[in-house]
Amino acid sequence: MGNRVSREDFEWVYTDQPHASRRQEILAKYPEIKSLMKPDSNLIWIVVLMILTQFVAFYLVKDLDWKWVLFWAYAFGSCINHSMTLAIHEVSHNSAFGHCKPMWNRWFGIFANLPIGVPYSVSFKRYHMDHHRYLGGDGIDVDIPTDFEGWFFCTTFRKFIWVILQPLFYAFRPLFINPKPISYLEIINTVIQVTFDVVIYYVLGIKSLVYMLAASLLGLGLHPISGHFIAEHYMFLKGHETYSYYGPLNLLTFNVGYHNEHHDFPNIPGKSLPLVRKIAAEYYESLPHYNSWIKVLYDFVMDDTISPYSRVKRHQKGSVVLE
């Protein structure tokens, strides 16, 4: 169904990613930005509150009819769980306890992982650091779709299905693009998460467990917040591989929408990224950006020039040090 997209390959470039050079230029002009490179202690309490909120929700849905379990999973739980994945994103940058306490951040990430239902935090950290260091790197950056995704999801209907299935592609894509040996922390993350899921099942029942897992699956698929997956790096305008979003959903997503600012300064917590934009306004105001993630999702599905192939890729130069 729908016209076939015109793009048949990724956008291959032979230049370095723009973020490192822009970071150096901005810091030379505005050295005070370095003062923003510090942990966000409020992140800890926000995550704890979100986890407690989901624990209450697990209890409240345990005796509901199935239709209401799924309704609340999408209407409420999906927002909490998607937001929690972005809290884990913050923690992966050591924004909770700082770079001097890396293991505190890893353990806190495992704790934040609990209401998501699927072990995720430790693996995400390993691959996300590669995404920052080698943005668009062929065979390295697993944020880039596979060739199969670009080839197959090439019509309006297929792209719609791809959006729904995004969490599955993000989960399995690393196994095909950049598989890594399992670390002991990933094993610990998995054991703790499976144990938690079993406890939820035996204490509260199958409906609470389904609510938790459905909230993650639905919240990371066809959902307004999921527009950030596409908005961040899909090339809607030729020559631009990173885009920021300045709409209200940043309030639920730890300012992940400030994505140019984030890639320029990954050591600055999300809460301070608006200050980066304010201080170095001339560097960001002229860059293309979005005000609606819903519109991004609509345009991705309906625009015949956009597909999973609409990503900038580069062959990495020099030595590669993976996380």
Automatic annotation (TrEMBL):
Occurrences of domain Sphingolipid delta4-desaturase N-terminal (ranges): 5-43
GO cellular component: endoplasmic reticulum membrane; mitochondrion
Transmembrane segments annotated in the record for this chain: 43-61, 68-88, 150-172, 184-204, 210-231
Annotated EC: 1.14.19.17
SMART domains assigned to the protein according to its UniProt record, in alphabetical order: Lipid_DES
A Pfam cross-reference name: FA_desaturase
Keyword entries, A-Z: Endoplasmic reticulum, Fatty acid biosynthesis, Fatty acid metabolism, Isomerase, Lipid biosynthesis, Lipid metabolism, Lipoprotein, Membrane, Myristate, Oxidoreductase, Transmembrane, Transmembrane helix
Membrane topology annotation: Multi-pass membrane protein
GO molecular function: retinol isomerase activity; sphingolipid delta-4 desaturase activity
Subcellular compartments: Endoplasmic reticulum membrane
Xref: InterPro entries: DES1/DES2 (IPR011388), FA_desaturase_dom (IPR005804), Sphingolipid_d4-desaturase_N (IPR013866)
Gene Ontology terms describing biological process: ceramide biosynthetic process; fatty acid biosynthetic process; myelin maintenance
Oligomeric form and interacting partners: Interacts with RLBP1; the interaction increases synthesis of chromophore-precursors by DEGS1.
UniProt function note: Has sphingolipid-delta-4-desaturase activity. Converts D-erythro-sphinganine to D-erythro-sphingosine (E-sphing-4-enine). Catalyzes the equilibrium isomerization of retinols.
PANTHER family noted in UniProt: SPHINGOLIPID DELTA 4 DESATURASE/C-4 HYDROXYLASE PROTEIN DES2 (PTHR12879), SPHINGOLIPID DELTA(4)-DESATURASE DES1 (PTHR12879:SF2)
Protein name: Sphingolipid delta(4)-desaturase DES1
Record organism: Balaenoptera musculus
